[in-house]
């Protein structure tokens, strides 16, 4: 893992991989930003324990996607050799978020299970109890994960003058990769286990639902959430284990496999938080499971309408300044949808 990377020209497959990864990160950044903005602006969603955890998850994924979209992509495409310490500061959040995001997802699933098993007690928590509860859920993994960036930084300092074609594997040694992969694996197995328990509780009528249609929607939601863990999150630690433990692999093969793992990871980050509010669920024992509730969809529609109205108002003001009264009057008569191209309004 510490050998020098050969300066091979970028391949078509790698270029396509980078383009797809940037596309996924762009979609994820937009969807997670809108979700975070919705929760932040909605008092009803922000008050709940799960709402706060989901806000943290969305913001964490936004930072992770920004960490891939900009400087790391430029460094990969240009093949510029830079000092390892700069590579660390440019790229470290990408692999760090691989361990952080599954833990937050696990906390959300634990919170949902508690809300199902103790619905009345969960709903009647005082504000102080909610603060203690959320603080405990957040601080516990945060304390554990503080170890990772410090170890990455120490490894980087030991190889301070090393020139690299920047990749995450340059500043993470084998032991750190194994530790991060173990965290990802255990977190996702925990998520799968908890959602399986929720499904069994519904199957054996421990949880009373209003009708069969609600039960089908819940099963569909659980299947989607579990499918993301199985197909996108779990392959990442498996590939990392294979790369680290198989010492016969060439450096190029190692980086190809790691790029595949990162690609799957970005797909998971793109889908992870948005799918939590796309899935619908009706009332569950006098308590809405917030991240599967239609409340999010209603708030998202309101927020989207606010953004559209803001853009239309901003565009109208620009046209009024550029074109004067005639342009403003003309714009008011346009009833068809419009698109903005270079500050000009065209009928769609």
Give descriptors for this structure.
mainly alpha; 348 residues; transmembrane; Rhopdopsin 7-helix transmembrane proteins; G-protein coupled receptors family 1 profile domain-containing protein; disordered C terminus; two-stranded antiparallel ribbon; disordered N terminus; GPCR_Rhodpsn_7TM
Q: Structural class of the secondary structure composition?
A: mainly alpha
Approximate strand percentage: under 5%
CATH superfamily descriptor of the largest domain? Rhodopsin 7-helix transmembrane proteins
Question: Numbering strands along the chain, what is their spatial order in the largest sheet?
Answer: 1-2
Distance between the amino and carboxyl termini: 53 Å
Helix content: over 70%
Major sheet, described briefly?
Answer: 2 strands, antiparallel
The helix count comes to: 14
Output the radius of gyration.
Answer: 23 Å
Number of domains: 2
CATH top-level class of the largest domain:
Mainly Alpha
Which fold name corresponds to the CATH topology of the largest domain?
A: Rhopdopsin 7-helix transmembrane proteins
| SSE pattern | HHHHEHHHHHEHHHHHEE
Uncertain runs are: 1-7, 279-293, 326-348
Can you count the beta strands? Answer: 4
């Amino acid at each position: 893992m510490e050998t020098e990377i050969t300066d091979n020209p970028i391949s078509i497959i790698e270029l396509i991989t980078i383009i797809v990864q940037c596309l996924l990160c762009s979609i994820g950044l937009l969807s997670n930003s809108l979700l975070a903005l919705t929760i932040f602006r909605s008092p009803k969603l922000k008050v709940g324990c799960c709402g706060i955890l989901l806000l943290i998850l969305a913001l964490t994924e936004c930072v992770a996607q920004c960490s891939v979209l900009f400087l790391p992509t430029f460094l990969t495409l240009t093949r510029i050799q830079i000092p390892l310490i700069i590579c660390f500061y440019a790229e470290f959040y990408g692999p760090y978020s691989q361990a952080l995001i599954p833990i937050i997802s696990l906390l959300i699933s634990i919170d949902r299970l508690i809300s199902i098993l103790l619905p009345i007690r969960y709903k009647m928590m005082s504000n102080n109890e909610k603060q203690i509860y959320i603080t405990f859920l957040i601080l516990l993994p945060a304390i554990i994960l503080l170890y990772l960036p410090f170890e990455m930084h120490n490894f980087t300092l030991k190889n301070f003058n090393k020139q690299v074609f920047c990749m995450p594997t340059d500043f993470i040694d084998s032991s750190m990769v194994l530790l991060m992969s173990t965290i990802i694996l255990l977190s996702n197995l925990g998520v799968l286990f908890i959602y399986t328990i929720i499904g069994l509780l519904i199957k054996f009528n421990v949880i009373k639902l209003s009708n069969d249609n609600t039960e089908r929607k819940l099963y569909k939601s659980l299947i989607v959430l579990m499918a993301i863990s199985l197909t996108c999150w779990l392959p990442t630690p498996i590939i990392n284990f294979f790369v680290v433990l198989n010492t016969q692999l060439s450096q190029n093969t190692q980086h190809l496999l790691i790029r595949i793992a990162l690609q799957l990871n970005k797909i998971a980050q793109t889908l992870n938080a948005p799918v939590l509010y796309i899935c619908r669920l009706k009332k569950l024992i006098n308590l809405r499971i917030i991240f599967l509730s239609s409340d999010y969809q209603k708030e998202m529609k309101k927020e989207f309408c606010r953004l559209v109205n803001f853009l239309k108002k901003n565009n109208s003001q620009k046209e009024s300044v550029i074109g004067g009264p005639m342009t403003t009057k003309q714009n008011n008569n346009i009833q068809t949808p419009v698109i903005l191209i270079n500050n000009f309004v065209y009928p769609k």
